[in-house]
């Protein structure tokens, strides 16, 4: 078995990739900490530091459980909280009984806090940890060393905090870039299957109904041909703004192709989605784009049905959109609802 490949190695979308990054960090940190700390259990036992040896054993047991949970269940054992808590307590207590030999462990412990905890919790935790270390250092070491320890430990935390903060910012920015379309700011296809599957699950489990609306600009190619691609881009941007202005916060707007947009409308039945689709086509055709460019769009509406997969749901909507185009464009076509399952007659 390869210990160094975590279950998240193959993430299927950007959000999962970020979650996978955090899991791998936690996973690897626990492995290295386990390897480093396990021999100390025996060393401290031999030095008759039974309490410290016991706490280190607890630390290693927690590391084994975290690794096993991540590896086999894909979840965090006790949310990964015990590592920072036990590491800080062990380092403080070891400094108290072992002096400098214990102090050295405070540095990796203070850095690990920022890799394992959310940033705010790590800051609070590190302030408490530095306070406890300062107290122990004031009892064990000369004044000059006390100040050296406080400043060097504080600086380690500051470096780790800056790094963790920047990595968090980078993760958020990369997720945004990977999940949205740069031209219109709409969600892109990377999230589509996950979002639709979520609504299918809500339908299957709680009978909560969502609908899908596809909107495709009519004769968009001729806009590009006549006015140029930059003008086409401005039409697409304006189109996304108009759609967003009419939608609720809970609705999700995707750009799934060149001039094709998809709306996922939670808690919305087909007839309400149909009304919204008509309103959206009106907002597109009512006002000219650019200076005086009249544009129309075609749309289709499909409510999620029992037994749907995301692709069958999308295919039905796609087929209806094709019909709207074939029927002359500038109109909404609804996917016919499946008849409700007839109840099986009960025999006396
Ligand atoms: N400006 C611009 N054009 C794009 C973009 N993505 C795709 N397109 C163009 O969109 C056009 C789509 O053409 P078609 O698929 O024939 O669709 P259409 O002309 O709208 O015709 P119907 O949909 O049948 O009404 C093509 O010319 C693509 O080059 C984009 O990001 N910006």
Automatic annotation (TrEMBL):
SUPFAM superfamilies for this protein: Nucleotide cyclase
Catalytic activity: 2 GTP = 3',3'-c-di-GMP + 2 diphosphate
Enzyme Commission numbers on file: 2.7.7.65
SMART domains documented for this protein: GGDEF
Key words of the record: Membrane, Transmembrane, Transmembrane helix
Co-factor requirement: Mg(2+)
Membrane-traversing stretches: 25-43, 50-70, 76-97, 109-134, 146-167
Protein name (record): diguanylate cyclase
InterPro entries given in the database record: Diguanylate_Cyclase, GGDEF_dom, Nucleotide_cyclase, Rev_trsase/Diguanyl_cyclase
Domain GGDEF: from-to ranges: 208-337
GO molecular function per UniProt: diguanylate cyclase activity
